[in-house]
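Q: What does the predicted 3D structure of SDR family oxidoreductase look like?
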Amino acid sequence: MKRTALITGASAGIGAALARVYAEKGWDLILVARRATLLEDLARELTVDHGATAVVLTADLADPDAPHRLAMTLEQRGLTVDALINNAGFSRTSGFLATDPDEHAAMIDVMLTAPIALSRLLIPGMVERGFGRVLNVASLAGLMPATGGDTLYGPIKSFLIKASAGLHLELAGTGVNVTALCPGYTLTEFHDVNGSREEVSSAYPAWMWQTADHVARVGYAAVEANRPRVVPGWRNNLLAAIPKLLPDNLALKIIGGHAKRLKRI
Ligand SMILES: NC(=O)c1ccc[n+]([C@@H]2O[C@H](COP(=O)([O-])OP(=O)(O)OC[C@H]3O[C@@H](n4cnc5c(N)ncnc54)[C@H](OP(=O)(O)O)[C@@H]3O)[C@@H](O)[C@H]2O)c1
């Protein structure tokens, strides 16, 4: 029997890479994002390349009702979700005061409200069936000291990492694995969407960048192994470890200057 993975933010970057990895491993897919044409192109590719059935469901996860509507559509269409991959996300780097409050609300809805609501809606079925996977795409930023400029992004990801760890513990023994994936800089549309591509490319060297395919493969292996959290790459693991060795105020001063380096604040 084929399993089905629902991936949010599957139209680009890490989400599209995860869809390709899951299809390659023999899963069917439910692809969720706003841009229908990209999702439909990807669905066709997954069918041709891997024989996967891929269903496209467009949704704007900045709408707090979107997760409930998605769950209703799944039920109406008789679709079962064996793996939930909460991946959709974006950041705003121009500073807290320069960012429209609606954009702040959208960040929280897309990266926190939606993952939590979808988890609450879909995990009970997984527990009942004795099999499930939840992969929450967080960020290395969630493990690092705060940064000014993209002020809400790190805390949102910290929340997701800690909530994933709690869920991981709570679901032990149920057959449902829960993992937070914490990538460092990854080559996707992310920095084009937030307008920092040029600054981020010159501020951070090539060795700090990973491909979406690599990140997706690390995430897939980690949730299959039921690791509570994974950081792809030894360099990113080192970056996550350094601040823990420093007094908090010093770590904040040295490492939290990210937005300053990008000349954003
Ligand atoms: N790239 C990095 O350096 C990096 C590092 C660490 C963590 N991450 C995390 O990785 C995840 C994926 O990011 P990425 O790098 O792959 O970025 P990306 O290439 O910009 O892709 C973001 C995805 O999220 C979807 N999305 C954004 N807003 C949405 C909304 N309102 N409703 C539904 N879907 C929405 C986009 O789809 P539509 O536009 O079609 O809706 C797109 O598929 C994010 O959670 C991000 O925080 C990225």
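A (community wiki): The structure tokens above were generated from the sequence. The beta strands are 4-8, 28-33, 54-58, 83-86, 132-137, 176-181, 186-187, 210-211, 229-230. Residues 4-261 form a domain with the Rossmann fold fold (CATH 3.40.50.720).
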